[in-house]
Specification:
The protein is an alpha+beta fold. The protein is built from 7 helices and 5 strands, in the order E-E-H-E-E-E-H-H-H-H-H-H. It has 2 domains: 75 residues, Ubiquitin-like (UB roll) (Roll), CATH 3.10.20; 82 residues, [2Fe-2S]-binding domain (DNA polymerase, domain 1, Orthogonal Bundle), CATH 1.10.150. The chain is 33% helix and 11% strand.
């Protein structure tokens, strides 16, 4: 059993300690914001924050994060008020959305350490791949979020069309996987 804190909640995963964190989060905890992309750490779609650092959750096992604090996109801000989430919408930086959670988490970790990051620092810290070509808008969104953080300004971007903000902000609790049913011998 692996114990860690996920989105500020203690979680006990009843899974093999060698299980990649991405699979524990998605399959056992039903936290599907982080996406499984390449499986070898290149695309960044699986990026989460562990103890304040952006990490590729496909490259780290449950055993490696035991006792640590993991934050997924679901807990960055329940009402989507984090400056980077607001800036992503304001800059039109979301296209297909597959890479978006990883980009947001990598950007949020960077801005928490350095809200004054310049374009080169951002590009070096956010090597995630966006196949849609939204990369330049994503970089602008991270810069804009940094400015908002420094000035304590709330961006209040419009909600995504067709998405009720109240539903998007639902708090999804992390859960333990259910034990496999035992067949009776009758």
């Amino acid at each position: 059993m692996t114990r860690l804190t996920v989105n500020d909640r203690p979680v006990h995963f009843l899974m093999d300690a060698d299980t990649p964190l991405i699979h524990a989060l998605r399959d056992a905890a039903n936290l599907t914001g982080a996406k499984f992309g390449c499986g070898n750490g290149d695309c960044g779609a699986c990026t989460v924050i562990v103890d304040g650092q952006a990490i590729r959750s496909c490259l780290v096992s449950l055993g490696e994060v035991e006792g640590r604090f993991v934050t997924t996109i679901e807990a960055l801000s329940g009402d989507r008020s984090h400056p980077l989430q607001q800036a992503m919408v304001a800059e039109g930086a979301v296209q297909c959305g597959f890479c978006t959670p990883g980009m947001v988490m990598a950007g949020a970790a960077l801005l928490a350490r350095n809200p004054r990051a310049n374009r080169d620092e951002i590009a070096q810290s956010i090597p995630n791949i966006c196949a849609c070509g939204a990369g330049p808008r994503i970089l602008r969104a991270i810069e804009r979020a940094g400015r908002a953080i420094r000035s304590r300004e709330r961006l209040d971007a419009l909600p995504v069309p067709g998405l009720d903000p109240a539903e998007a902000a639902l708090d999804v609790p992390a859960i333990e996987p259910e034990p496999a049913p035992v067949e009776s011998e009758e």
